[in-house]
Design goal:
The chain is mostly beta strands. The protein contains 1 helix and 8 strands, in the order ββββββββα. The strands form 2 sheets. It has a 4-stranded antiparallel beta sheet with strand order 1-8-6-3, with no helix packed on it. Strands 5-4-2-7 form a 4-stranded antiparallel beta sheet, with no helix packed on it. Strand 4 and strand 5 form a beta hairpin. The radius of gyration is 16 Å and the shape is elongated. It starts with a strand and ends in a 5-residue tail after the last helix. About 15% of the residues are buried.
Length: about 100
Amino acid sequence: MPTQKNVELPDIGDFDAVDIIEVLVKVGDTVNENDSIITLETDKATMEIPAPFAGKVTALSVKVGDKVAKGDLILTLESESERSEERRVGKECEPRCR
């Protein structure tokens, strides 16, 4: 059963708020784990923020020009990753857990 999961801005270093200069996904898009979802710009660099897990974008909470900080909601994904994670962990454990 799919679950709704919020994607929040991770810790990107010593910045209070950074500008979103590009939103790389839209509602309805399917993303894979580590696909870039937004691009941020600080006074020193630009950086792309990856999706922490795979899923379908069901809501966007940011737009170009917004300022975001650690913990701010970026988007919501409908994900099956908990099941996938359980299967993956089970497979990794299988040879060692016998």
